[in-house]
Amino acid sequence: MIRLEHVSKSYKTSTRPALDDVSVHVDKGEFVFLIGPSGSGKSTFLRLLLREETPSKGTVHVADYNVGKLSRRRVPRLRQRIGCVFQDFRLLVNKTVAENVAFALEVIGKPRHTIRKVVPEVLELVGLDGKADRLPNELSGGEQQRVAIARAFVNRPLLLLADEPTGNLDPDTSQDIMLLLERINRTGTTVLMATHDHSIVDAMRRRVVELHLGKVIRDDARGVYGVGR
Ligand code: ADP
Ligand code: ADP
C-alpha cells in the first residue's frame, strides 16, 4: 500500500535533510504508528504520500501510484484514495455534521442519491447518528473528531492518514477515537497515524516506525512508544 524506497527529502532552506534515506513498506490493511520528536520528519513523510511534496531522492508508491512522478492532473485522483484526519479537526464551521460529510462526496461529483444513502450510514458507523443536523461548535472535541473521521472515510479510501488525531483530546476521548480508527482499520483500510501519545501507542501494540533526524531508527511489529527510555 505504501512503499518508500531510499527516500530523501531536502528543503531548500534547511541544512539537513528532513528525511534521509528512508525505506518503509506498509501492506494493505496494516495499522502503523509513526513516531518521533518534533522535527524528526513525520509531517514530511505524510506530505510525500499526498504529493504535497516530492522526494529529492528515491521513490514513493501509494497503491499503484508512483507518487513522486505523478502528473499534475492525476494528483487529485491519488488524493481521493487517501483520507486525512488532523489534530485540529478542520471542519467547515458553517455546515452541519451531515453537510460536512456530504461535502466530501459532492466535491468529487458523487450523485445526490448516493450521498443521501451513505452519509447516514457513515454517521452511524462513527456513532453520530443523532447529531446529523448539529453544527461543529455544538459538539465536543471527540464528536468533532468523529465527524472528521466520517468525512475522511465516507469515500472508502485505501489509506487513512491521521496526524496527531488525539492531540486535542483528553485520554478517555482519545481512547474512543482509537477504537474508531481500529474499527475503520478492520474494514481493510490501511491506517498510518503520526503521534506523540505514549499511552495510546503502548496500549495498542501495533507496528511502530520511529523517526529521528529524518532517519528510521526503529520499526517494530508490536511496538511501544519508548524502548529502554
Ligand atoms: P515533524 O512532523 O516530525 O515535526 P517535519 O517533517 O515537519 O517533522 O520536519 C522535519 C525537518 O524538516 C525539520 O527540521 C523542519 O524544520 C524541516 N522542514 C519541514 N518543513 C519544511 C519546509 N516547508 N521548509 C523548510 N524546512 C522544513
Ligand atoms: P439540499 O437542501 O440542497 O439537499 P443540504 O445543505 O440540505 O442541501 O444538504 C447537503 C447534503 O447533505 C445533501 O445531499 C444531503 O444528502 C446531506 N444531508 C443534509 N442533512 C442531512 C441529514 N440530516 N442526514 C443525512 N444527510 C444529510
TrEMBL record:
SUPFAM superfamilies: P-loop containing nucleoside triphosphate hydrolases. It is found in: Cell membrane. GO terms for cellular component: plasma membrane. The keyword Protease does not apply. One of its GO terms (biological process) is cell division. One of its GO terms (molecular function) is ATP binding. Residues 2-227 form the ABC transporter domain. Keywords: ATP-binding, Cell cycle, Cell division, Cell membrane, Membrane, Nucleotide-binding. It is a peripheral membrane protein. It holds the Pfam family ABC_tran. Homodimer. Forms a membrane-associated complex with FtsX. Belongs to the ABC transporter superfamily. PANTHER family: CELL DIVISION ATP-BINDING PROTEIN FTSE, IMPORT ATP-BINDING PROTEIN. Part of the ABC transporter FtsEX involved in cellular division. Has ATPase activity. This is Cell division ATP-binding protein FtsE. It comes from Crossiella cryophila. The lineage of its organism: Bacteria, Bacillati, Actinomycetota, Actinomycetes, Pseudonocardiales. The gene is ftsE.
